[in-house]
């Protein structure tokens, strides 16, 4: 009798198991968090910040003069204002830790009050025959656009949700402050309207014109404001 010889069996190759989609997303999120925390550690550890620091180079071209505009207004007063803006944006049905921003911003700027002398016509200036008395009727003082001072304006704190932080990584303008800057300028403009800035501008304009005309030989100078 012959004994049958068994052939050695080879293990059957099993197909490789694929990673589920949720696992891939979780892995990507972990990697992003690791990069963010690593960046924070580099900014805290002494020496590493200078080692991996960045250089700034100004490659801007020369400024070009596009147009010239004559100005006939007399800037008679300027007010300095400061406002604290607390701007919060929330997402519906999502907690603030996931989606939402809150920015505390200190905005400092100026608003000019001026009298447009270009609107004064011939009928608005009256001089007596002896050229000793003059009456001027001027338009009321107006307010210019608020101008924020970048050296005195700054963000006190910024709170952003996780999705907003991730979006900043792929944004062309991360941590943009245009919204709070516009809001600060609007509040400063409203404060200027409620102030005595326009009255001060008219008073200073009157003093300027009286001093100018008195030096030209006028004994009496009367200045009124109105349309």
TrEMBL record:
InterPro entries: DUF4230. It comes from the Bacteria. It comes from Streptomyces hyderabadensis. The lineage of its organism: Bacteria, Bacillati, Actinomycetota, Actinomycetes, Kitasatosporales. It holds the Pfam family DUF4230. This is DUF4230 domain-containing protein.
